[in-house]
Amino acid sequence: MTTPAPQENVWLAAVRNNPDHAKNYAQRWRNFEAQGRDIYGEARLIDAMADRGSRILDAGCGTGRIGGWLAERGHQVVGVDLDEHLISVAREDHPQAEWEVGNLARLALDDETGDLREFDIIVSAGNVLTFLAESERLPALQRMRGHLAPFGRLVVGFGAGRGYEFVDFAADAYRAGLELEQHYSTWQLHPPADDFMVAVLGAIPVPPEQDE
Q: Which residues belong to any copy of the Methyltransferase domain (predicted)?
């Protein structure tokens, strides 16, 4: 049975139902790290894909576990998340990166000239896209597409059964101007499977305007 797409942002609904949800989430990841569990698999893949000192956007960054790890290795990292508490944790734990509160469906990061900032890699891990309301998904992909540098790549990972069918994601990505270049079933690049997708996408080139 197909899980219906959420009509409300899943994270905001969870916080409304439990005001301690974000604090519990942050503590859960701190506990995992204290236990010696490997929580940086996604970050290692992004680091392997990136040139040294790349501009990286951690889209839906949570407590900064991915972006913070990448910043420690010399990348220029910006993280965005809609939860103020999670951003406060990221700022405390990973001060070498830049952390901003914001909704991906309205993502607009300007540079010093007022133009959209460009990123060599945008990563959205941890099932972030499945937390978005159905109406937020295409706008979020469009906004991320707008922040990709020439030849930049968007890397997304999420599981099945969370209200976002892989085929629907691929269709939304295409509508947003993104091309699915490769896809895998794990962050260790195992072959595609039905339970999880790690997708690598690039921007579809905009054809030059034709002189009349």
A: 56-152
pTM comes to 0.94
- Per the domain annotation, does 27 fall within a domain? yes
pLDDT value for 205? 85
Whether 210 is covered by a domain: the verdict is no
In a domain, 36, yes or no: yes
Give the CATH number of the domain where residue 196 resides.
Answer: 3.40.50.150
The burial class, CB within 10 Å (0-12 / 13-18 / 19+), for 38 is exposed
Domains in the chain: how many in total? 1
Q: What is the mean pLDDT of the chain?
A: 95
Report the pLDDT value the prediction gives residue 208, as an integer from 0 to 100: 63
Question: Lowest-pLDDT range, 28-37, 142-151, 172-181?
Answer: 28-37
List CB contacts of 212: < 8 A, sequence separation 6 or more.
none
Contacts of 144 (CB under 8 A, 6+ apart): 57, 59, 104, 107, 122, 124, 154, 176
Residue 212 in any domain: the answer is no
Is there a contact between 11 and 62 (Cβ–Cβ < 8 Å)?
Answer: no
Q: Which residue range is the domain that position 190 belongs to?
A: 10-203
**Sign, Cα dihedral of 114, 104, 71, 147:** negative
* pLDDT grade for 209, boundaries at 50, 70 and 90: low
DSSP per residue over 147-202, as a string? TEEEEEEEEEEEESSSS--HHHHHHHHHHTTEEEEEEESSTT-PPP-SSEEEEEEE
